[in-house]
Amino acid sequence: MKTRNILLSGALCLLFCGPALIGLASWGGVALPSWLTAADAAYLSGGITEADPAAHFSVEGFASGEFQEAAEYAVGNCVPLKATALLANAAVQRSAIEASNVLFGWECYPTFYGSAIVEMPSEGRLLETAEKATDNVRDTISRVRDSLDAFGRRHPDQRIFVYLGPDSMNVEGSPTANLVSNALTYEGTENLFEEHDGAFEWIGGNVTFDEFTRGWNKVDHHWNILGAFQAYERMAVALGFGDDTLAPKDLVTYDDPPFRGTFARRGLETAYEDHVLDYEFADFPKFSVTIDGAEGSMDSLVHHKNYERGTWGPNAFTSRYAEYFHTDYGLITLVNEEADTDRNLLIVADSYSNCMERLLAAHYRTTYVLDPRHDRETLDEFLADHEGVSDIIFIMRSPNLLAQATEQALAPASAQG
């Protein structure tokens, strides 16, 4: 009995005093292992929120609740073993969900109660729950389509293409469509974009679920190099160089580090993991690279040397896709010194292009990669400052193609401000 009481007292003491001890250690400059602090949990909880309760220690701060909120964040940032607690809590909930699923036999189910991420044990992968085809979503699709059409009509000298990257929310045959009513499918979105002839060309990107399982990461929303290369081949046909596509020499698989992507992080699930894949090419063109105005290199865009040296982030939930290829930038410029053409390409993209922009750049003199989430100029303004762009291609998945940042980029320059 005494042993039990001692253990219980110790646990309660750690629970109540742990945040204070960690806070004092941090304030005193004591280096603590990341697993003990909230550092590892930052990947799981969306980051560490800066908190300064002292700045709100006033009658007004109490009355508005700002002091209480800041104090809550401050304590939360010092909870010991926070990542372990988050994962353990999700695991307990998942056990209950799995037990109940014996009665229902769903092919996939949430990783914890309220999670938008589901696990599919038969495929050993995590997926994102399908989005509903609400009137608001349909209206947004129509509005973006009309903006693309208007943009194309303002720039009749450029060829404009749109490639919507499939994902686990909308891919044909995804089991997550059975978890919601009136799911928004890839085909449904495609039909809305092709509802009338516009001043842009739609490049169909739909794939079967079998193709999806091979070409997309198991634990992340990004495609792997297999899915990206399939998309590149479809784009090549539309852009007119389908007979001259690059030919991969070897498929490279990095066994280490394990890849636990955004789905594993958001789903608080560690049972599934993947690996980074890349292609090697013979006689690949040499590029000069500029990133957000600063000189870069191909090593800045594909970090294969780091992986060959065994250099990568220590946290299990590090975004390996961004770590191996590259993170998101506002504007990347690639100049192909060996090009036998003077044609220039503008890629308007989200992170889906990060692993494949070099493939398209091999067919142009200059390739610009603009991410509307990180570059606030309109496309009209960009084209006015960068003469000679012959082709423009949008490469995004639906959450970003339909985002406000993309609509702002498509707006006429006179409509800004």
Report on this model:
Helices cover 40% and strands 18% of the residues. The chain has 417 residues and is of the alpha/beta class. It folds into 3 domains: 79 residues, no CATH class; 40 residues, no CATH class; 281 residues, no CATH class. A hairpin with a 2-residue loop joins strand 8 and strand 9. Helix 8 packs across helix 9. The radius of gyration is 24 Å and the shape is globular. The termini are far apart.
Low-confidence stretches: 21-25, 71-75
Radius of gyration: 24 Å
Distance between the termini: 71 Å
Alpha-beta classification:
alpha/beta
Major β-sheet annotation: 8 strands, mixed
Helix-strand string? HHHHHEEEHEHEHHEHEEEHHHEEHEHEHH
Global outline = globular
Question: What characteristics describe this protein?
Answer:
single chain, 417 residues, alpha/beta, 3 domains, three-stranded antiparallel beta sheet, 17 helices, 13 strands
